[in-house]
Amino acid sequence: MNKELTKNFASGHSACAGCAFPTIVRTILGESPDPVVISNATGCLEVTSTLYPYTAWKTPYIHSAFENASATISGVERAHKILSKKGKVPKKVKFVVFGGDGGTYDIGLQSLSGALERGHDFVYVVYDNGGYMNTGNQRSSATPYGAATETTPTGKESFGKVEMRKNLMEIVAAHHIKYAAQANVAYLSDLKKKAKKAFETEGPAFLSVFSPCTNNWKFPTSQYVAISKLATETNFWPLFEIEDGKYKVNWATETPKDLEEFLKTQGRFKHLFSEKNAPVLAEMKKIVKDEWQRLVNKTEEV
Amino acid sequence: MTQSSEKKFDFEEAAVIKHDIKKAPKTGDWRYMTPQVDKEKCIGCTTCVPFCPDAAIEMESRGTQNVERKTRYAKIDYDFCKGCGVCAQVCPVKAIAMEKNK
Predict the structure, then answer these.
(1) Which class does domain A5-300 fall in?
(2) Hey, are the CB atoms on B21 and A1 less than 8 Å from each other?
(3) Under a CB-based contact definition with an 8 Å cutoff, are residues A132 and A99 in contact?
(4) Is B50 in contact with A88 (Cβ distance < 8 A)?
(5) Closest CA in chain A for residue B80
(6) Is A54's CB within 8 Å of B86's CB?
(7) Which ipTM was obtained for this model?
(8) Chain A neighbours among B 59-88 (CB < 8 Å)?
(9) In sequence order, which residues have a C-beta less than 8 Å from that of residue A146 and are 6 or more positions away?
(10) Residue A297: in which H helix or E strand, if any?
(11) What is the pLDDT averaged over residues B66-85?
């Protein structure tokens, strides 16, 4: 066991072999200069790291329900503020929330919005695996267009999810918070830099991190880094940050790879390569291209 | 709730799950493929270390047997390695090979 990496999050958790979020958790917490307190929405991370009577967390940890992880950390942060004023607890503590995309995009959105608006000093991290993977791959509002899930199956009449994914980054940016960023688990130095900035930010900061799911995206366990890399190289998951409302793209290429290269690595997009679904594939390419162009336009706004 | 003035924050009274790695479950028995590091090939770049989901890789010093300025090599903790193969996939010199368990 690597002692340096397991300072906050130990080995021995029961996340699937080849899961991406342990790397995300360790990388982000490794950048915190102070001790951390964690609130965790229900999800894969919570289920696999806290099998009673064991825990993988070496930090103070609160498990919240799906909808109130941000509300929990709001209370903890406010209590800490008062108690540290009275000199009863250490002054410098960082507050972190981990949530999956179900607990952030869908169910926890109201408490996230409330906490961002009230301006609590915390970092919200969403590991986005595009669905409710813990309960067997049901669709969420983070599931991309065209992906097959349990609740949006493929068949004669259907081709997977019909709707586009929610643009959470813009929802978060609309709260006028100082720092929000989208990162990718394959680009660790970028993720570290963003985590550091998020911890340095006074008030709320938001990180959205791409986290492939080996079990339900249906790819071999060894591939999560390669697939994450392709997601950014095809412009499917651009890396950018929003500082004081200003957009900045952190990684770009003049010749992005074809989206098919990313799609063909995963079983959930297998049906898109049939003749019948050619229009869906074309639509998907158009969505990715348009979203990228929208992002580029945003960076040019002053 | 009443609290005595001496004991301001006795967290032990609450539900505290102690972290004891010795008693913790070992996930090494999940493995059906085992990564084998080729010590000669490994250049000690540490690329695989942060990507391991189980933090099972540590860099080990070669001691006096330095080969072409390579001072370290990756060593895998088989108590926790789940055999996912991410290390073999990210290795830039293909020094890690996945072998089926016998």
Answers:
(1) alpha beta
(2) yes
(3) no
(4) no
(5) A12
(6) no
(7) 0.91
(8) 77, 79-80, 82-86, 88
(9) A159, A160, A161, A269, A272, A277, A280, A281, A283, A284
(10) helix A278-300
(11) 86
What is the tens place of the pLDDT at every residue in A3-27?
A: 889 999 999 899 999 999 999 999 9
What does the pLDDT look like over A176-231, one tens digit per residue?
Answer: 999 999 999 999 999 999 999 999 999 999 999 999 999 999 999 999 999 999 99
Residue of B83, B88, B89 with shortest CB distance to A17: B83
pLDDT in tens, A146-170: 999 999 999 998 999 999 999 999 9
Q: Do A222 and B86 touch (CB under 8 A)?
A: yes
- Tokens 């040019």 -> residue: A300
Task: For residue B24, give Cα distances in angstroms to A19, A43, A45, A46, A228.
Answer: 20, 21, 17, 17, 31
Which residue of chain A comes nearest to B35, CA vs CA? A222
pLDDT grade for B2, boundaries at 50, 70 and 90: very low
- Give residues 39 to 58 of B whose Cβ lies within 8 Å of A: 49-58
State the DSSP string of A109-174. Answer: HHHHHHHHHHT-S-EEEEEE-SSBTTTT-B--TTSPTT---SSS-BSSS-BS--SPPP-HHHHHHT
pLDDT higher than 60, residue B6: no
CATH number for the domain running over B25-100: 3.30.70.20
- Residues of chain B with C-beta less than 8 angstroms from the C-beta of A15: 53
Q: Residue ranges of the domains in chain B?
A: 25-100
Q: Which residues of chain B have a CB within 8 Å of the CB of A89?
A: 9
